[in-house]
Amino acid sequence: MTTTKASPAPPAAERPGSQLGELHLRGISRAYGAHTALKPLDLTIRGGEFIALLGPSGCGKTTALNCLAGLLPLTAGEIVLDGKRVDTLPPEKRGFGMVFQNYALFPHLTVRANVAFGLKMRGVGKEETRRRVDQVLSLVRLTEHAHKHPGQLSGGQQQRVAIARAIVMEPPLVLMDEPLSNLDAALRLQMRSEIRRIHQEFGLTTLYVTHDQEEALSLADRLVVLHDGTVSQIGTPAELYEHPADPYVAGFMGYRNLLPLEVASADTGGVVAAGRGLTVRGTPVGEQPPRAGQNVIVAIRPEDLRPAEEGEQTVAEAVAEIVEYHGRVLHVEAVTRHGDRLHLKSHRQVHPGDTLPVAVDPERALVFPEADLPDLPDEEATP
Ligand code: ATP
Q1: pLDDT digits over 291-305, tens only?
Q2: How far is the CA of 23 from the centre of ligand 1 (A)?
Q3: DSSP H helical segments within the chain, as ranges?
Q4: CA–centroid distance, residue 63 to ligand 1 (Å)
């Protein structure tokens, strides 16, 4: 779900965290021996932006983050922070804030001492340290827990200490690696809003790594979708959601029906793709319109595939196998005669075993040139 972001951040001068003008990643890549985990990545991050790096396990997200932090040397490329090359500097000289999924707090120190630790190491004076620690503790809403030790806090509170500890240093960039993955579902939602609020109120520039597309869509100003170490698409949540560049991004953006079909006909009115008893009229994506006989992937969201009206052109008939009640709408998994599994939503009653003619509006069925298909999670991933 692309949630509306709260009111715009205050002007840069009033925000302690906003020190970044622009950070350029120029062709950065990283190989482990013969395996290239991150292929040349180009990205410009502007001060105040929230960028999500999104992709499944093993796509190279952590490698990219660690290269930025300076924990891993680059194999090629350069990182330029406001005109100054920083990829040759060690992590502490880059000064980026890091927030990990396992918090990494000092258990024997109080919340206040954990947050003050980095300032003390940097030799910041007592008064200044107190002022800055008070400011960030209040921002992360932990003032009344300042005297406690991490073991006395909930997971969400510990994660907020970790965020406070990173941002008290006023870093030009905060790097977050799946910071919510150790929290339960309810707390994850709550902390998601907290992270966005803190980002905005403190005027941070944030790079956030996640495999959760809903988290990425709701938090970020822009998303970078990684696939096998390569960027598939960079864009705003709305751009990616409405106009996925390929079936891989479409799969991530909730197009659960990815049907490998063949073009039966193509004209100015659209494309008709068919195969295994399915026939779909859809809208081509890409610069080259598909030709008859070409292999394509047709992508349809479950909410756009529905039981057909009387007399309507159908995609196929399918037998409902799993019917889940979700309030006003039913989520239905149905299987065609040839064994294709379709995910659809229905506002009318459907029972397991019912045979359904299913339909889609042509502008809601995207037709992509053939490509590798993503492994989609079993769970319903539609935002
Ligand atoms: P996850 O979400 O599971 O953490 P990821 O997207 O962060 O995955 P990376 O950890 O960046 O992925 O790994 C990218 C690829 O590089 C994977 O194929 C991984 O097996 C490989 N890789 C990562 N670290 C090393 C290493 N130290 N040596 C060799 N290969 C590695």
Answers
A1: 899 999 999 999 999
A2: 24
A3: 61-69, 91-94, 111-121, 126-139, 155-167, 185-201, 213-219, 237-242, 247-252
A4: 6
